[in-house]
Amino acid sequence: MDSMNDNSREGSCDKDQNFITNRLPNKNVLIKGKNFEFAIGRLISHGRFGAVYEVLRRTDGRRFAVKLEICDTHSHGLNMDYIVLSQATKVSCEHIASLIDQGKIEGHFKFIVMKM
């Protein structure tokens, strides 16, 4: 494989990661779901399409995890996660995280909130 091609791919990956990072929320930013508001906490993990953060629910200070997916990435992984978690929550699957809330910050990301 040509090393020049490897370098060009590296550059595009860096651009992709900067695109993602610029759309993710900063710590202590409030996000509003359908039912609750949450304060963004520490970054747990990030990937190609978004990130997972610890969040605090404003009404009671309980900790949850929020999975964010950047709107412009054309990925539908979060939609599938929502379907699976909402069905599992309805039948009380003890080995799958419970869905707490969902929402969208227009132009930035959509998200689901689940138990940690």
The total domain count is 1
Anisotropy-based shape: globular
Helix coverage percent? 25-40%
CATH superfamily: Phosphorylase Kinase, domain 1
Compute the separation of the termini in Å.
43 Å
Tally of DSSP β-strands: 6
Strand content: 35-45%
Low-confidence stretches: 1-15
CATH class assignment: Alpha Beta
Question: What is the CATH topology?
Answer: Phosphorylase Kinase, domain 1
Instruction: Strand order, main sheet: write it out.
Output: 1-2-3-4-6-5
Largest sheet: 6 strands, antiparallel
- Compute the gyration radius: what is it? 16 Å
* Average pLDDT taken over every residue: 83
Q: Please give the count of helices.
A: 2
String of helices and strands: HEEEEHEE
Task: Report the CATH architecture.
Answer: 2-Layer Sandwich
Structural class label: alpha+beta
Biased composition (Basic and acidic residues): 7-17
Protein name: Protein kinase domain-containing protein
Region (Disordered): 1-20
Show the helix and strand layout:
Elements: H1 3-23, E1 30-32, E2 37-46, E3 50-57, E4 63-70, H2 77-90, E5 99-105, E6 109-114
Antiparallel strand pairs: 1-2, 2-3, 3-4, 4-6, 5-6
